[in-house]
Amino acid sequence: MSKTPKFDAALDKIFAELKPHTSVCTETGERFEITERDIEMCRLLRVPPPKTTWLARMRQLRSFMGGFDLYRRQLPDGRSVVTLYDPDSYAKFLPADDWYADSFDPLAFGQVIDPNAPFFDQWHRFSKIVPRPSLQQDAKSVNSDWCIYFLNLKDCYNCFASWNGENLTYTDQTGDSVHDSDLSLCQHCEWSYDSVLCKNSSRTFFSERCENCVDVSFCLSCRNCSDCFGCTNLRNKRFCFLNEQLTREEYKARFASIDLSDGHVVEEWRDRIRDEVWGKAYRNGQSIHKSENVSGDDIENSRDVSGITIYDSERAYGCMLTFGAKDCYLSMGGLEFERCYNDLISYKSYDNRMTSFCWSCIDVEYSELLTSCEHCFGCVGLKHKKFCVFNKQYTEEEYWPLVDALKTAMLERGEYGEFFPHELNPIAYNSSHAMAIFPMTEAEAKRLGMRWYSFAEEKRGDASSTDDIPYRLTDTTDEILNQKFRDPSNGRIFRFVKPELDFHREMNLALPRVHPSTRRYARAAAITMHLYKRACDSCGKKIETRIPPEHTAPVLCGTCYEQVVLGEKPVPTVTRG
Question: Quick one: angle between helices 5-17 and 396-413, nearest 10?
């Protein structure tokens, strides 16, 4: 028997008249399709059809996740804390240790909700008074205080959404790795630097999409290679320079002439490789492995899914950065979750809708930062609770009629099924992780009602020019740790930290010359989360790819790409304007 009979009756009335159709995005004005599969998933998950395009929905979800920038702020009691909330944010927060302590009671902030009043207006007032943690951290990690959204880290500094790592600096969404710096979306890597989407590799520098590689620099889409420089699309090769096979002696001599501890040399080769080599290399337009009936890119060991970066999943549609999902729709991030909709970072959860950072929860809606909760609606920060609304405890007999009335009224007002509006976001858009993967200008963000944080005060501080950073690593002393530098591209101030300097000395690599966030945005640009429709330049098959239309070199479907790599097909000749 339904726990929410009025809501179910109202929703079934919508479904009775719902057919596949073309809809208009309420945010962008773009036309998009509501397909039979979309309707099927909405019926399964008991939600009305989406009102925005897939891209707009993903962008909105990700904007509620803090990004690369952290802020030092002072609490009313005088304590100084590092937090993901910028100084203009309405969010009330506590030091992470205080928030995660057993003595903190979120029920103390409970409020009574009025089903007949607009839900999001009430949520805004309620969420202003409930403290959040200054940083979302894993209490079991060691010496990793400046990291955020992480699991099981040790001796790490300023890492974002990384897990199972040790001695890492400035890594983003990197797992099971040690002794690395400036990596994004890499797994099982060690002693590597400034690389993107690399796996099972060691001493991999300035590279992208390489697997099982050792001692490679400026390489793209190479696999099972070692001692290679500036190479693309190689398999099982050693001692190659710009895809030219050399002897061991020839390669060692040529590589020894390139001093990567000199910043001038790094900049020269980076510009040359990206323009003359990577820009002209054929690409795998669609990376799909051990999967069936799927669409999108970067999909592994999955069936009946669509989206980007989906692993070990079934029937997960319109999802992004999800692992172990089942029967999910429009989910952004998450691990081992089922029957979830329009949610941000779910972990070991079931039947959640419109939630963010809810772990080990069942049947939770419109809630944030819940752990091991069941049957809660519109709550923040609860742990091991049931039958709560706006952090107020109810009996089971009181809870269900209240939720039925709430959801029915929200459905009638067109609220139910929509994520929290942009204007209620405690995180400024340019301070969120959405800015990295869905970049926008200040004007574009404000037009959509998003908040924008100004770093003007930081720009006024005293700092040296990056011209004062020695180009040669051998000219760098520990005194550099006491200096501040101004990024010439955006005026922001940064400094070097000892773990970072130690890593560069160990690897004999030149120090970077821009703000850490500038470097991170540059890496994120290499892994765009947009999908473009195009045809394989070899067989003509229609594919969805993240490679933008302006890329003029051949773009191939996965099958043709492997055939070309193995020499079974020639590289196709294409002509584009």
Answer: 30
